[in-house]
Amino acid sequence: MNKRQARLFAIGSTVVAVVVFLGLTIDSHRQFPKLTNAQNITPAVTHGKDVWHKNNCINCHTLFGEGAYYAPDLTKIAQHRGAAYLQAYLKDPSKFYDEQRHRRLMPKQDMTDVEIADLVSFLDWVSKVDNQGWPPRPILVTGAGIGPMGALPAGQVAAVVKAAQPPGSTPAAVGKDPIALGEIVFRTSAPACAACHSLVPGVNMAGPSLAGVATRAQQTIESADYKGQAKDAAAYLRESITQPSAYTVAGAMYSASGVSFMPATYGKDLTSDQIANLIAYLTTFK
Questions:
Q1: What is the DSSP pairing of strand 62-63 with strand 255-256?
Q2: Torsion of CA 247, 250, 253, 257, to 10 degrees
Q3: pTM for the structure as a whole
Q4: Of residues 200, 183, 215, the one with CA closest to residue 140
Q5: Architecture of domain 154-282
């Protein structure tokens, strides 16, 4: 290739690159309104964004991975925790932690009820932006020790569960093990149970530790305070999964005004088999 051909090639390549870049830019801007749910940007969402900046939340937290990495990314926090939990938490974070044990670092911002509600609206809008799968996994608490598999994708959990089966087990047998299948549901449901619950005694996250949950379930239904419909531990666990507000513990930090912070959608989002398998898994924690 001589100098003239090299020059023409360089010019032509630059022109092609510029055209492709402009085309992708125009296409991105064309899709922004749909991807960001622009039609759902209400005055409350806009004010919530102002509250976010006013309180310098980004000095500790990230949204879409942008910001400080001192505290968890909050891109999907509204889906993982729910509005009721976030409102109670923002009202007074100290009620959700024992400072001696958990070293609570979240300061009380002294926001008004309107500011809290609008900030939650903003975070809810953020959680519904089509961000191509970011962040890639649920929020976890450092040191929570939720188990040897952490928050692995479903395929990896299935592979680990399969690898743990006794020699000679067939794939069909592995696929029918309700406890193994229940663990997959625990790790991978949306939102994953493991995002809020630890399996280590005394390690409470957004929800209480599930260590010994089967024993506690039996004790609960035998107590005079229990007002639910369950007659045994398995039924109580089913009730807790599908109707989390059917029975709440007075004074606990996981509910407010008799309404549990746990999502009430699992009864619809999970199949009957998934719920049965999840219960089979949880009943092993005695």
A1: unpaired
A2: 80
A3: 0.59
A4: 200
A5: Orthogonal Bundle (1.10)
Question: Whole-angstrom Cα distance, residue 195 to residue 151?
Answer: 8
* Rounded Cα gap, residues 87 and 141, in angstroms: 20
Considering the domain 39-127, what is its CATH architecture? Orthogonal Bundle (1.10)
- Provide the CA 134 distance to its chain's centre, in angstroms: 12
Show Cβ contacts of residue 138 under 8 Å, excluding neighbours closer than 6 positions. 76, 80, 151, 191, 192, 194, 195
Which residues of the chain are modeled with pLDDT < 70?
Answer: 97-104, 134-175, 190, 251
- Token pair in block for residue 197: 């619950």
Residue-wise pLDDT tens digits, 66-118: 888 888 889 988 887 888 889 888 988 877 766 666 666 788 889 999 999 99
C-alpha count within 13 angstroms, C-beta hemisphere, residue 9 = 6
Nearest alpha carbon to residue 42 among 117, 150, 103: 117
Q: Which H or E run includes 18?
A: helix 3-35
**Which residue from 131, 129, 132, 133 is spatially nearest to 41, judged by alpha carbons?**
129
Residue 68, token pair as written in the block: 């400080």
Q: How many residues does the chain have?
A: 286
Place of tokens 């509250």: 51
In terms of C-beta density within 10 A (0-12 exposed, 13-18 middle, 19 or more buried), how is residue 267 classed?
middle
- The 10s digit of each residue's pLDDT in 137-151 is 555 544 443 333 333
